[in-house]
Amino acid sequence: MKRFYKETAVDLGDGGHRILLDGKPMRTPAKAVLVVPTRALAEAIAAEWGAVPDKADINVSHLPLTRLAATGLDRVTNQRARVIEDTAKYAGSDMLCYRASEPETLVKRQQETWQPLLDWAAGRYGARLVVVEGLAFVAQPEEAVKKLHEAVAAHSDLGLSALYNLTHISGSLIVALAVAEGHLAAADAFAAAQLDELYQVERWGEDPVATKRHEGIRHDIEAGARFLALLEQQRLKG
């Protein structure tokens, strides 16, 4: 689909801020009016659409904030319990808990990058997770898993849309929650999520396919972090 509109705008309508294309409210794939709670987020979404060149194809990969908002409205609203479960289940197998035994430089980097995030989660949510060497599954304390489940469930539908994406992209619920809480910047979240791969790149070099994949991951993490910041969720400082 090519750009079919001339102007983008934002107005305050029923339920929040709407994005307008030539004066008409934008709709999600499920035909719901795309409405978000903050003007800042609405303006950022409108800017995505405004940046599409005249008569150019509309590429959804260039509309990450729109996609997160539409997913929250179309899917999370109707499947909230399922999205919470699919996100919170990472508490039982969080990537940060599985450490290398060698080489020493990788072991040290994982400890220095990942352990502070686990310590933060323990203090913030009262959820102390168990760390092991290797990939053999380790059962996490039930109380810690419960606390992290509650942290996920505390998010709004739109917040869950971004949190779900961040968790699946990074492989870590702790990384996603740290981004959502404003504790971890997008660049640091990318570095933590891709620590092992970036370590291998330093040793052996990067190929074009890996470079493209890393850029996609970086882009998605940045979009999730920006979406959550613009959403201005109610956060408890920790």
Report the portion of residues in β strands: 5-15%
Molecular shape:
globular
Number of helices: 10
List SSEs in N-to-C order: EEEEHHHEHEHHHHHH
Helix content: 55-70%
Number of strands: 6
Average of per-residue pLDDT values = 93
Characterize the biggest β-sheet: 4 strands, antiparallel
Question: What class do helices, strands and sheet pairing give?
Answer: alpha+beta
**Low-confidence segments:** 233-238
For the CA atoms, what is the radius of gyration?
19 Å
Distance between the termini: 45 Å
Summarize the model shown.
This protein is of the alpha+beta class. Helices cover 55% and strands 8% of the residues. The termini are far apart.
What attributes does this structure have?
238 residues; alpha+beta; two-stranded parallel ribbon; 6 strands; disordered C terminus
Task: Please tell me about this protein's structure.
The protein is α+β, with helices and mostly antiparallel strands. Helix content is 55%, strand content 8%. The chain is built from ten helices and six strands. The chain has helices at 39-50, 64-76, 80-88, 104-125, 142-153, 157-170, 173-180, 186-193, 195-204, 208-231, and strands at residues 8-13, 16-21, 24-25, 35-36, 98-99, 132-133. The strands form two sheets. Strands 1, 2, 3 and 4 form a four-stranded antiparallel sheet that branches. Helix 4 links the parallel strand 5 (98-99) and strand 6 (132-133). Helix 6 packs antiparallel against helix 10. The longest helix is centred in the last third of the chain and has 24 residues, at 208-231. It is globular, with a radius of gyration of 19 Å. The N and C termini lie far apart (45 Å).
